[in-house]
Amino acid sequence: MPEFIATAPDGRIAVSGGKSRGLELWDADLTESSFIDPPEFIPDIGAPGELERTAWGPDGTLYAVARWWGVIAWDGQGWRPFELP
Predict the structure, then answer these.
(1) pTM for the full model?
(2) DSSP state, 60?
(3) What are 13-67's pLDDT values in tens digits?
(4) Which of 3, 36, 56, 69 would be a feasible disulfide site paired with 23, CB 3.0-4.6 Å?
(5) Within a 10 A sphere around the Cβ of 33, how many other Cβ atoms?
(6) DSSP secondary structure string, 4-52?
(7) pLDDT tens per residue, range 26-37
(8) How far is residue 49's CA from residue 28's CA, in Å, rounded to a whole number?
């Protein structure tokens, strides 16, 4: 059962939390979905990057709170740390 949902400006939906450690991404018309893996394990502590709350930025970037990583951003290619301007 998912715990968090976020809708993008273009209608895409990101679903995270629950038993799944990654994120399921639905297109705007809900006909196709894809799974985005969470960030890699952190070698120093061996903890997974479980995804929690998510939110979309106006530019289409997906931001997520990851359990051991803090805030991270998905640009469609991969995860990166979120850095304040």
Answers:
(1) 0.75
(2) S
(3) 998 876 667 788 988 888 888 988 777 655 555 555 567 888 999 888 999 887 7
(4) 36
(5) 12
(6) EEEE-TTS-EEEE-TT-SSEEEE-TTSS-EEEEPPPPPBTTTTB---EE
(7) 888 888 889 887
(8) 26
Q: What distances in angstroms separate CA 31 from CA 12, 54, 62, 76, one per listed residue?
A: 11, 21, 20, 19
d(CA 48, CA 21): 8
Residue pair 45/33 in contact (Cβ under 8 Å)? The answer is no
**Whole-number Å distance between alpha carbons of 51 and 15:** 10
Token pair 């991270």 is at which residue? 72
Nearest-5° Cα angle at 21, 55 to 76: 50
Which tokens in the block code for residue 61?
């970037």
For residues 1 and 34, give the distance between their C-alpha atoms in angstroms, rounded to a whole number.
Answer: 17
